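Chapter summary example.
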Amino acid sequence: MTQAQWLIPLAAFAAVFVFALVLVQTFSGLSAARVRQRLREIRLEGEESSAAPLIRARYLRNLTPLERRLEELPGMSRIERLIEQAGYHFPAYRLALLAAACAAGAAAAGGWLSSHAGLAAVLAIAGGGAPFLQMVQMRTRRLREFEADLPDALDMMARALRAGNPLAETFKFVAEEMEGPIAQEMATTWSHLNYGVSLKASFDDMIARMPSMSLRAMATAILVQRETGGNLAEILDKIAAVLRARFRFLRRVRSLSAEGRISAWVLILMPFALAATLALTSPTYLPRLTGDPLGRTLIVVALALMALGVVWIQRVIRVRL
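The structure predicted for these 321 residues follows.
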């Protein structure tokens, strides 16, 4: 068996795996979209909707004419949001060009290894999606760090309120005393409030940058308290206690579901380990499958079903609060 024939099922698995990850990310954001829509609906009439258009306009003015045209292409705003959520600050077109370069390089490598056009297309899809998947992973890591520090930030805000500081100054206090994503987001929100952006619009922008269910709970509680009254410091203390209990429960669920995740990895890796073993012990066995068109079709179908099984297992063992 040639090396190119071995690469066809592996490249197909990579493409299906990338598609499965994108599918999971899309489904996981549906409930968050509903919450964001609810926050938009409770805005008062006449308030400035968001600080994002002003910030984006100033950002575009700092670019060259060519860069500005690239940034105004369809879809660039979503890529820019992804980069911002990952904690980076560079033009979105650079990530798009990097993805295009990776796709072209992967397609060229596939064309050099084999004359099969399908292999080149699969490698191009996998190579083009790799930079975006890396950004998604960085965004997820940053979001987890933000959620882990949010209860401590709420405690600091409650103490600052009891000391007589206004709510806007509590964001500055957290930004100065803490580090990491929580400090960056609180500093940005404090800057928006100083620029005259309303509290509701500032929270909406903050949630867009950091789509956290814990942050939505905090924003909703503060907005409701601003309209109905009450002890905000006590409310923040209770939210911090609830978030800590939630994180303890999630850690317990993660430990209890570890067996399911290990089983998933075993089931995924077992066919590849078996194929590698057969290739070493019986070199003439697998070519009968990979050399036949029907056999290659069955391999692709099996990889697609494996990817579907991975998504299903992830949905079963994931608990959202």
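To summarize the output: Residues 190 and 240 are 20 Å apart (CA to CA).
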